[in-house]
Q: What sequence folds into this?
């Protein structure tokens, strides 16, 4: 399968990434991608950008180096009711919104608590993608999460960084296998993202693609095959 987009990347604006916006875009163009999502961490993540950064995204061109660029955020889920660390009106102005659980922002809870947090985030109409739902530090009921994502037209992410040998996330491969089987059962679409924090990782998908192939996961449920398919799931029109 041809992968034409990467919708989850970070620049130096996120505080713990290492390349500029122009460098990330050029890396995406060099990798033959048609679309790149730049999704800086929202404000509760230590070291990231101020809210003003996100309010001013309107000034940026959405086509750079010959590819489409969507600007948005990886918002932090802050509690077990799915509260996010960006006000709703600003979330609605993002081209794309990823919602994720991060240890600096919310402590891991029980499976029921974590699942409720993610499902409530899925129910937020501004959320398009659930980021790295495979982190075993936050055990989830993938059956419930996949069903909710299908109902609310939200993508579940297969995160390539989660499957790298150096990941700090736990039990990711086994969790991804369970999640993908639930997505197959509910026909819940997924998105493969690099979660790149440096230009060399833009478009990286080797671990995720290998897992999809191993499981024989249906290509029609992977939105990376088409920019048009991806656009059905994001805020920007």
A:
């Amino acid at each position: 399968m041809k992968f034409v987009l990467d919708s989850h990347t970070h620049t130096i604006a996120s505080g713990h990434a290492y390349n500029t916006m122009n460098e990330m875009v050029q890396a995406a163009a060099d990798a033959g991608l048609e679309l790149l999502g730049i999704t800086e961490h929202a404000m509760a993540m230590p070291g990231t950008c101020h809210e003003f950064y996100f309010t001013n995204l309107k000034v940026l061109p959405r086509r750079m180096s010959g590819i489409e660029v969507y600007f948005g955020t990886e918002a932090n889920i802050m509690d077990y009711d799915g509260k996010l660390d960006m006000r709703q009106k600003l979330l609605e102005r993002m081209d794309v919104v990823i919602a994720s659980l991060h240890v600096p922002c919310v402590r891991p809870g029980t499976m029921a608590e974590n699942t409720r947090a993610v499902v409530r985030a899925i129910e937020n109409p501004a959320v398009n993608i659930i980021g790295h739902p495979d982190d075993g530090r936050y055990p989830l009921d993938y059956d419930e999460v996949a069903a909710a994502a299908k109902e609310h037209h939200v993508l579940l992410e297969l995160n390539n960084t989660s499957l790298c040998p150096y990941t700090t996330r736990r039990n990711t491969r086994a969790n991804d296998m369970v999640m993908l089987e639930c997505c197959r059962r509910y026909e819940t679409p997924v998105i493969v993202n690099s979660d790149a924090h440096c230009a060399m990782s833009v478009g990286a998908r080797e671990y995720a693609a290998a897992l999809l192939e191993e499981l024989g996961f249906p290509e029609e449920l992977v939105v990376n095959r088409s920019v048009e398919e991806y656009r059905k799931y994001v805020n920007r029109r």
Notes: Residues 91 and 126 are 6 Å apart (CA to CA).
